[in-house]
Amino acid sequence: MAELGSQGPVTVLDLHFQTAGTVGAFLVRTSEGPVLVETGPESLYSTLEAAVNDQGFALEEIRHVFVTHIHLDHSGAAWQLARHGARIYVHPIGAPHLADPGKLLGSARRIYREDMERLWGRLEPIAPEQITPLEDGQVVRFGSLGLQAIHTPGHAVHHITYRLEDGLFTGDVGGIRLGPGPVIPPCPAPDIDLEAWADSIARMRAAAPTYIYPTHFGIKVDATAHFDSLEENLHRIAAWVRDQMDAGGTEEGMVPPFQTFMHDLLAEHGLPESTIQDYETADPAFMSVYGLARYWRKRGQGASSV
């Protein structure tokens, strides 16, 4: 499974979230100036600034920022860029939460508690006039280049995949794939929807991309194998949680064995322990347990087939 650092106008920026190669942003060179896809968390704003500078630009030159969804590892620094005058493009459901991030911030604090600021930094409102909600299929053009919004729920109801020429910025709905590892679907609460996710994978396949730009992490050049791995592991992981719930398992009790399950799944691919740990950093196991348990509970734990 091959990987690149740059392709055409797109360069991946490694934000070094706890370690290298787990969280990225993408700099897109256009005839109308640099465009950014994803921002990373606000805690890594200085890292983002240094990475943009290394590419020959200043953050103040970035006037257009596209986020795939409003989770903090994807959009947490958007408000800082907006303070420099950038316009922020987002799903219509996510837009109000960028303008008034109180609920988003409260949810994150309940999960991360004392680690909140260390991991994600600060979160402040963005002026509504600087936020542009994008409808499904809408294209924003910069000279000869256009970014098309493809609504792709499943991971989150407010998720957009962006198409740029023959590449797709797949956020989290396209899965996490570190180095030579498999594609793992991150499944946090509250929006996991396996049926919607399957439809979104079909939409991404239909776009027939040559390149995939997953936020976690890099630039991939084998779309068919990527989506095959994503589908396979989405089914395996969801089925594991469903079966544990059918056997009477609780979320808290499932977390340790799920960590072992994920470790073994990743080890099947011959990954070193360091890469397996990087997957846990990018996609903490407890979040998928709670997200998928919520999904199955809403559907009667095992009433739906995976």
Give a quick set of tags describing it.
single chain; alpha/beta; Metallo-beta-lactamase, Chain A; 2 domains; seven-stranded mixed beta sheet; five-stranded mixed beta sheet; 11 helices; globular; disordered C terminus
Would you summarize the structure shown here?
The chain has helices spanning 45-54, 72-75, 78-83, 95-99, 102-112, 116-120, 194-206, 223-246, 251-267, 273-282, 285-298; strands at residues 3-4, 6-7, 10-14, 24-30, 33-37, 64-66, 87-90, 131-133, 139-142, 145-151, 160-164, 167-171, 211-214, 219-220. The chain is α/β, with parallel strands linked by helices and 306 residues long.
Tell me about this structure.
This protein folds into 2 domains: about 5-235, Ribonuclease Z/Hydroxyacylglutathione hydrolase-like (Metallo-beta-lactamase, Chain A); about 235-300, no CATH class. The model is unreliable at about 300-305 (pLDDT under 50). It has a 7-stranded mixed sheet. The protein has a 5-stranded mixed sheet with strand order 9-10-11-12-13. Strands 1-14 form a two-stranded antiparallel sheet. By secondary structure, the chain is of the alpha/beta class. The chain is built from 11 helices and 14 strands. It has helices at about 45-55, 70-75, 80-85, 95-100, 100-110, 115-120, 195-205, 225-245, 250-265, 275-280, 285-300, and strands at about 5, 5, 10-15, 25-30, 35, 65, 85-90, 130-135, 140, 145-150, 160-165, 165-170, 210-215, 220.
